[in-house]
Amino acid sequence: MTRGAVELRAVTKRFGQVEAVSGMDLSVAAGSLTGFIGPNGAGKSTTIRMIMSIIRPDSGTVDVLGADAIAAKDRIGYLPEERGLYRRMRVTEFLCYMAALKGMPAHGLRARVRAWLERVQLPEAERKRCQELSKGQQQKVQFIASVIHEPELIILDEPFSGLDPVNARLLNRLIREIHSTGRTIIFSTHVMHQAEQLCDRIVLINRGRKILDASMQEIRARFDPRVVEAEPLDGDARAADALARVPGVASAHWSPERRAAELALAPGADGQAVMGAAVAAMPLRHVALRRTTLDDVFVELVGEAAPPSEESGNG
Amino acid sequence: MADPKDRGAARRVMAVALREFRHTVLTKGFIFGALVMPVIMFAAFAALGLLLDSKLPPTVGTVAVLDASGSVERHAREELANDRINAVEFDGKRIKETSLPAPPAGAAQPLVPRIDLTLEFPRDPAQEQALRDRIRDGGLLALAIVPPEVLAADPKAADGGAASFTLVVPSGSPPRLTSLIERSVARSIVKARVERAGSDWKSLDALLSVPGTSVRRLSEDGAESEENVVAKTLLPMGFMLLIWVATFTSGNYLLTTTIEEKSSKVMEVVLSAVSPMQLLAGKILGFAAVSVLMVGMYGALGVAGLAFAAMGDLVSPGLLVLMGVYFVMAYAFVAIMMASVGSAVNDLREAQSLVTPAMLVLTVPLMLWLPISEQPNGTLAVVTSFIPPAIPFVMVLRVAASSEPIAAWQVAASIAWGFAWVGVFLWAGAKVFRVGVLMQGKPPTPRELLKWIRMA
Predict the structure, then answer these.
(1) Which helix (H) or strand (E) holds A253?
(2) B335/B391 same-domain check
(3) What is the pLDDT of residue B225?
(4) Are residues A184 and A273 both part of a single domain?
């Protein structure tokens, strides 16, 4: 069996009376781009902090890059959710300091910093102090700090929070580029469409437990809603009743938000055939088989209710 | 060959230490506070001397002594002679007035304005009002009215109390000038009395002069040493203050930078690269270098000052080595406390409540400076020198008070006991630091801190 980049075995972490992570078993494949998703307080950040050896599990084992997590620190890049900079340090100095902590030799470091600043479209920040940067610019600098030492494993906790769409797109591209070089990336978010866009594997955590661990392909197959959406040309809600009689449709109901009828397929019914029959039944503006979204999967597995409490301690 | 894991840890610790050192000593605050400020103060004192010397105009005017008997005149002319009164504070030193040396020709000027007096000795009491009018008009600097009874062999006033003379001066008369004239006229009256009694003033003055003292300390082994006020009280205080200021300045920097790292959320970024213990070690090491820089700088200035004052022999190499050992101990106590408190709180206000109890213990040596340096082997000194974290500060006072050597076993015991407590502080402080650096929200109570120590 191939050893994963990150292996967690029966890991548990408590903060006082609260069990932030409970008996977590997890394997992150080398070279994968894995998304940790879950509601606020689910235990994502606590899990990540244990992977980073910032906090120690109460029980269980954490194996990172085939070694003890502390020994692997120089081979890991980490962008924490609660991130900051030394406000009075100059950007170059800060990045050189972080790289030095990660074991980078001083020779050629400044050139590397300059190249990275140009890559994130921030060349003018080189001689600025960190406190002179905007929030978005600071976030780019923090991102550089997490990848400048070319780590084998990169952990990004909510990397897009606070970024405008242009910079979010830039960061998205950079993450893909880095991933394409064979590095393992763990990406934590509670924004489902970001995870859906970037990740090839999803780990859903809720109340300290892993409740889903599958590839996007498997998730789409497993959580296929088997629903056809049909938007009548005249927008009349009574279309739902007419379309309920189409062969292969088990039930139909009208969605006022989408202004479309949602047709649940009967067991064994062919979606393509149902769509054809619906088009024949009445003039339609749009008809499609609904695609599985992580939002739907999340709601189905976690429920729509807000999480009972924020994450305990600092996890 | 060193383990690569250990080398990595050492590299991280050194990187943290180097950053902390550079970002402290290269800040405007440090350069101004620790380097420029003392230079400015020194320059200010020097400038003050120059200002007093060169800018203040000399005091020129007339002093009248109204004495119907005329017996005071000769003595007052002697006492208020310009050469004499200007020599009294020659070179900033008060010289015994009965043995006045004349200022050497071409010598530096005194640091006070020169006084140039003209003396008048009217005898007619009816002139008093006219003389008072001259005071009001600015024509006289002072008027001394000497009544006959003050010159009597048994000087008594009409009411039976001690007889006195009157000195009238303008409302704006400088206190120093008034005091000088008052003392000089009073001495002239005493001299006149002595003369009237048929005695010889010079012999009497010589007989009454208080002799100087040379206190010799004789130890049990028969060694004899001269009592030195500087060595006995000021030197111990100087050494203790040096260590106190250097350790607390660094400790304060350690506290504020740790709080800043927490509040700016950079802590977790750093902890992704170093372990909490490596961060703590790096910080303690970095600020130790800051502390050493300060001790070295001020200590060298102090030793140079002593050497300049021909008291260099008060500081022996052995004493300096002991100072070094106690300095390391003092810094370790202060640094560990400040780092662990800084890690547990969110701002300086919250830190005060946790630092205050320790600060109270550490101010004990400051408050007990005099009794401890007076009696370095007294019960108070011995007991307080075994109370952590005050141990190094009290011991510095004791070993620097050279009049009474401290028993070698006490020095050795204090070092062993002190460093054992440093170990306890480090053990507890590291546990608090490990938990505290990642904690947000309300600061811990002392009970919660104990819980952290147990759980970490």
Answers:
(1) strand A249-255
(2) yes
(3) 66
(4) no
